[in-house]
Amino acid sequence: MASVRIGFGYDVHRLVKGRDLWLGGIKIDSPLGLLGHSDADVLIHALCDALLGAANSRDIGYHFPDTDPKYKGADSKLLLAEVIKILKEKGYKVGNADITVCAEEPKLNPHIPSMVECLSEIMGVGKDDVSVKATTTEKLGFTGRKEGISAYAVALIEKI
Ligand code: MG
Question: How close is the Cα of 127 to the center of ligand 1, in Å?
Fold first, then answer.
């Protein structure tokens, strides 16, 4: 495999009442949370898929199936740590990652520095190597109607 590789990831989770909202490893105050088998951290899931894609190592559902009771309510930070291990076994480390979250609310900008700190620590990179961006979709589509949150991620990995 080449010494530098790129990967892309995308994920969506439904917003519901009665769940905590976890994004980028941070718990955010919100009347609605994301529904999922794990903690449903859509940002981390997209990032995991970008990293796995870069290493051509399948996807998050392949490694952590939502039919496995082991992953019920799982902290996605642990899944990201597992993904880093998978990359390491293939001889790769993270170069940088750029993630965009689409959510009508809550406002995510105040939480971005904590997300970057959390994600960079898990991935073993500097804070400057992790970019988290937030956007609304101008009230259009399922994210605009606050039915869910989506996230896109690209990541570079480098040969160790
Ligand atoms: Mg997911």
Answer: 24
Angle between helices 42-54 and 76-89 (to 10 degrees): 10
* pLDDT mean over 135-139: 97
CB atoms within 10 A of CB 125: 17
CA-to-CA distance for 99 and 68, rounded, in angstroms?
Answer: 27
Q: What percent of the chain lies above the pLDDT cut of 70?
A: 99
Question: 31 CA to middle of ligand 1, Å?
Answer: 20
Task: Report every protein residue that has its C-beta within 5 angstroms of ion ligand 1.
Answer: 11, 45
Report the pLDDT value the prediction gives residue 1, as an integer from 0 to 100. 60
Ligand 1 centroid, distance to 103 Cα (angstroms) = 15
Is the predicted pLDDT of residue 2 greater than 80, yes or no? no
